[in-house]
Amino acid sequence: MSIRVLIADDQTIVRTGLTMLLDAQPDIEVVGAAADGREAVRLALQLRPDVGLFDIRMPLMDGIEATRRLAGPDVDDPLPIVIITTFDLDEYVHGALKAGARGFLLKDAGPALLTQAIHAAADGDALIAPSVTVRLLAAFAQTETSPPRQPLEPLTAREEEVLVPLARGRTNNEIAGELFITPSTVKAHLASLMRKLAARNRVEVAMWAHETGRMRGRG
């Protein structure tokens, strides 16, 4: 079955380009395109897409507020949303991730990473552009004033090992290769981390790793 995607961007040429790029994929179908955040929310509720691909800076309602309304902590059936933007390190991106976005890409990410992010979001996973993950999450951690949440149960030694490459933006396959374990084992550890941290996705797990200082000095 095709992954049904809703695009939201205020630039016509960007909406058209993303639509053409994604419709060219054999298992992705663009079902709607919005020019502002308010329209994105309306279309999302009307069309019930599998994934939203939203810009941050849009008129009437920005991508952060649209994400919060469709994927925020209080939403019963959150829409998986990937943020795609030209801004790789600013408060807008932090706000979007905090609002519930499952991924973050730059607009020059390329078709392969874009489709990978769409698939990850549809599968309940999350992906941040590897080129900006560490800088982005480290900067986010520095803006946090409240103490990081405490895990429901202590993390195991292996979960701590998985946490480090995850916070660097590595995929499950890359983490598996690095730690000499199977991708399914990585997925099981990730599920355990999400449960213990009450996190909705791997982005929030990665945020927690940075907030708790686990990535300091690791590059």
Automatic annotation (TrEMBL):
Query: What keywords were assigned to this record?
Result: DNA-binding, Phosphoprotein, Transcription, Transcription regulation
PROSITE patterns listed in its UniProt record: HTH_LUXR_1, HTH_LUXR_2, RESPONSE_REGULATORY
Phosphoprotein in keyword set: yes
Q: 4-aspartylphosphate is carried by which residues?
A: 55
* Annotated Pfam families: GerE (PF00196), Response_reg (PF00072)
Question: Residues in domain Response regulatory?
Answer: 4-122
* HTH luxR-type domain span: 148-213
Q: Which Gene3D superfamilies match?
A: 3.40.50.2300
PANTHER family from the entry?
A: TRANSCRIPTIONAL REGULATORY PROTEIN NARL-RELATED, TWO-COMPONENT RESPONSE REGULATOR
Q: What is this protein called?
A: Response regulator transcription factor
